[in-house]
Design brief:
16 helices; protease; alpha/beta; 35% helix; EC 3.4.13.23; elongated; hydrolase; Leucine Aminopeptidase, subunit E, domain 1; 8-stranded mixed beta sheet; Aminopeptidase
Amino acid sequence: MFGFFNLKSFKAAGCFGSWGLSAADMMKGLVLGIYSKEKEGDVPQFTSAGENSDKLIAGKLRETLKKSGPPPKAGKTRTFYGLHQDFPSVVLVGLSKKAAGIDKQENWHEGKENTRAAVAAGYRQIQDLGLSSMEVDPCGDAQAAAEVAVLGLYKYKDLKQKKKMAMSAVKLYGSGDQEAWQKEVLFASVQNLACQLMETPANEMMPTRFAEIIEKNLKSVSSKSEVHIRSKPWIEEQAMGSFLSVAKGSDEPPVFLEIHYKGSPNANEPPLAFVGKGIAFDSGGISINASANTDLMRADMGGAATICSAIVSAAKFNLPINIIGLASLCENMPSGKANKARNGKAIEVDNTDAEGRLILADVLCYVHTFNPKVILNAATSTGAMDVALESGATGVFTNSSWLWNKLFEASIETGDRVWRMPLFEHYTRQVVDCQLADVNNIGKYRSPGACTVAAFLKEFMTHPKWAHLDIAGVMINKDEGPYLRKEFLLRFSQDNA
């Protein structure tokens, strides 16, 4: 009775009607996980959620599997119809071995990654069936499952006239860890906010608009946040000449976005400082970019989108910490001159497409005034980083082994891997050995472009706990990321590629 026949033929046979289901019921799906065999001869195990549903589904599913062959392999799916009236469509997803833990070679938690990959595969299958809602087996990790389910909901479609029916509801199946599920739903929704900012075309996401969206999001979730949208006169008063040298080429006014999240009971507790590169559109300036990649340049504010969304997340969870968020927002259009940075250093601009480091230099000088615990800056800096690590990991340049260890530990849990890159004096000499000024915005050689950006930024940094995250390589979905839809393209800018 329960074969792998076409869903349309199943509907035509009148099976839905015999159960008396509504149209909404007919559009519901279920994703269930099953573990791989530990050794030959073992019986495949359902997850605890699947086992607990035995009377409803798992019993029939187990019986059907015996007749249809082995269960799906890790990351693969098989779809069944008619197992239970509450779930006309059930997608079985293969997990790896049940006891998977931290993989030191891969630098991530294999169990969490298996859950993410499996739920993503099941989610895509439910979407392909055109169903409007689904419930998801936590597959051993409710947080990892929720993250993938919510990320899969995102699709940029604001400018499309014809909007396909979207998944309206995703719920945790069973009694499971509802708290962990809901926590990750909030986290992932903020990730989708960052994606929305980056995917929006540059004529819709100007610096002022970006700042207004962040202000609106923070005001809606927390009274502990202050947002200051600084205009050009303020930037001039602060002598941020390096930032202004990039911004002056555009008709769109620059914005210096300053966020204060005061979550700590101790108002005087030193804050964490997050700094983001916010090039709303990067033409390359007079070192103009190739036209073939012009559409990608709308997301060159990925660093700013990331750090601002992270602060929105902290506010949503009412975290007991203080955070300072700073983002220099402007467009890089065909114009530009060499100017002094806020700390008085003169910068020789030999490539106007190496603009990200110019707008960050002033912010890094300014952020010291808040006496932060640590300083993290994120930027879609270089095509060189994409060449070095591609989408496998974020490149991290840091002057603190303590900070590196914290970032590395966090990356193992999240699956957002990081890799430590060098801050050698070798690269510093390539940017400070400058004919006309104190520092050059590009190094002597093209090859170590990611390293010379970090060396440049280090010239404006005196804090002992600082990290520069070059997120260029991980900002585009190259189809190997199982969590993201094909339409989910986080872009990167080849700033001094």
